[in-house]
Amino acid sequence: MATLTVPSAVPAVADDSEQLRKAFQGWGTNEALIISILAHRDAAQRRAIRRAYADTYGEELLRSLTDEISGDFERAVILWTLDPAERDAVLVNEVYRKWHPGSRVLVEIACTRGPAQLFAVRQAYHERFKRSLEEDIAAHATGDFRKLLVPLVSAYRYEGPEVNTRMAHSEAKILHEKIQHKAYADDEIIRILTTRSTAQLLATFNNYNNEFGHPINKDLKADPKDEFLATLRAIIRCFCCPDRYFEKVIRLAIAGMGTDENSLTRIITTRAEVDLKLIKEAYQKRNSVPLERAVAGDTSGDYERMLLALLGQE
Prior knowledge:
With 314 residues, the chain is mostly helical. It is built from 20 helices and no strands.
C-alpha cells in the first residue's frame, strides 16, 4: 500500500551521510542528490542517517537542510525526514498556533493512526514543545470543538477485530436520536466517536445505514456551513474510508486557480509509507487522471521531483 521505493542494496548509513554533506558543499546545493537519498529511505533508515550525520559533523541534518534549501521543497523534505510521530506533532502544533475550526489536521492524525502511534505523537509533542498536546488543544479550541477534540486525541482505542453487535445496534439508535434532535455535541455522540474501536464504529455505522436507510453522514449535512458538523463527518470518513478521505483532500488541494501546497505536502509525506498507493487508486478512479500527472501539472522544480519520488515514480 506504500508508494515509497527503497533500493534493494541500500548504501551504508555513513555513506548516505557523507553524500548528503557533499550535496550541501560547493557553490550550489545538489538538490537531486538530496532527493535520491532521502526520498528513497524508510523511517528507520532516515532516523539512522540523522543520527550518523549529527555524530560525524556535529550538526543536526534538519538544520543543514534548512540552511541549504527553501520554500515548498524545504517543507516537503523536512517533513519527510522527521520521524512519523515527530512529524505529526509538528503538524498539530502548526494548527494550534493558528487555530481555526475548519482545520482537519488533528482529526486526520487522531483517527487514522493506531493507538500506539497516536500515543507516540503525544509523547513527541511533549518532548518537542514542553507541553502536552491535550493542553494546547484545550487552550486554543473552544466550546464544542474543545469538548470533542481533547478526548479524540487522548483516546487509546482497542485495535482488535472483535465487535459487539448488540452494542453496535443500540449505539446506532443513540446516534440517530441525538442527530434527529440536532444535539450534535451531546456527550453520547462524543463518547461513542472518541472511545470505540475502529471495528466497533464501522459496525455501528453499518447498523445506522441498515436501520435508517442512509449513511450517518447524510444526516450530518443539515447545515453545510457548520464547521462542527463538517468535523464530525471528517471523523466518520477517516474511520470508514481513509483512502477516499485523503483523495478528496488532495483533489481540493490541486483544484481551482491555486494549489494548497501545505495540504498536498502533508498528505504525501504522511501517507507515502502507509497507504498512498490506495489513495492514488482512489484518485485515478474519481478523476480519471493519474495522481502523478495531476501533481506534476500543479507543482514544479525540486518540489515536484520530491513529491513524485514519494509517489513512487521512477
